[in-house]
């Protein structure tokens, strides 16, 4: 199975806060004091994307921004920028480039890919493409309220399955096309000003 590990979407400044977590529950809305809500984060560890084949890609840094149009909302729009990425295949490592990704996270635990994401491995001459997948209700994403240094924040944990992707170029290094991709990753969402929480 081809495993692509992408340091992705919604993450945390790892040493920036002492988190006191409330167990994840079934929530109905994201809540902030003001609208529109602007959120920022930095990755917490390595996020993982798996597709068919025998290689892996890891991005060690991901910076993202998120927004909700209302103070009480059921969705978050998230844009993620990836850097420090590499492909691991055949006991070797190759630099990789991952384009900006845009996602929609729903408070009910589903998510969608909102734009085309391209992972390029120039030295190997191959690439992987994830096309928009807006209506598939990819599952599952869970949310947990945490207390940061000064404000309330939301921990986002994704364990999403059923992602479709295609590959082209060098066989093996970029794996094979698949409709059973998986994404795993954890992050902390914090409001630019004030608190954000799930209720």
Global structural class: mainly beta
The profile of the biggest β sheet is: 14 strands, antiparallel
Secondary-structure element order, as H and E?
A: EEEEEEEEEEEEEEEEE
Q: What would you call the shape?
A: elongated
Fold and architecture overview:
With 199 residues, the protein is mostly beta strands. It has one domain. It is 0% helix and 62% strand. The chain contains no helices and 17 strands. The strands form 2 sheets. Strands 1, 2, 4, 5, 6, 8, 9, 10, 11, 12, 13, 14, 15 and 16 form a 14-stranded antiparallel beta sheet that branches. β15 (152-169) and β16 (178-191) form a beta hairpin. It is elongated and about 50 Å long.
What labels would you give this structure?
199 residues; mainly beta; 14-stranded antiparallel sheet; 3-stranded antiparallel sheet; 17 strands; elongated; disordered N terminus
Brief summary:
With 199 residues, the protein is mostly beta strands.
Topology:
Blueprint: E1 3-4, E2 20-21, E3 30-32, E4 37-42, E5 48-50, E6 56-68, E7 72-73, E8 75-89, E9 92-98, E10 101-106, E11 110-113, E12 117-121, E13 126-130, E14 133-147, E15 152-169, E16 178-191, E17 196-198
Antiparallel strand pairs: 1-5, 2-14, 3-7, 3-17, 4-6, 4-16, 5-16, 6-8, 8-9, 8-10, 9-12, 10-11, 11-14, 12-13, 13-15, 14-15, 15-16
């Amino acid at each position: 199975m081809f495993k692509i590990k992408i340091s992705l979407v919604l993450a945390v400044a790892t040493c920036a806060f002492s988190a006191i977590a409330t167990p994840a529950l079934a929530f109905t809305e994201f809540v902030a004091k003001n609208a529109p809500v602007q959120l920022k984060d930095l990755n917490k560890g390595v996020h993982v994307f798996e597709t068919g084949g025998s290689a892996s890609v890891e991005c060690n840094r991901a910076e993202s921004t998120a927004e909700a149009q209302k103070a009480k909302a059921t969705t978050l729009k998230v844009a993620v920028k990836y850097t420090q990425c590499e492909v691991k295949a055949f006991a070797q490592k190759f630099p990789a480039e991952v384009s900006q990704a845009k996602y929609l996270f729903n408070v009910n635990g589903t998510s969608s890919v909102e734009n085309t994401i391209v992972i390029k491995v120039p030295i190997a001459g191959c690439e992987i493409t994830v096309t928009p997948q807006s209506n598939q209700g990819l599952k599952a994403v869970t949310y947990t309220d945490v207390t940061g240094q000064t404000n309330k924040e939301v921990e986002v944990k994704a364990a999403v399955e059923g992602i479709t992707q295609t590959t082209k170029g060098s066989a093996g290094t970029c794996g094979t096309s698949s409709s059973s991709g998986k994404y795993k990753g954890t992050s902390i969402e914090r409001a630019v000003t004030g608190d954000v929480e799930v209720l």
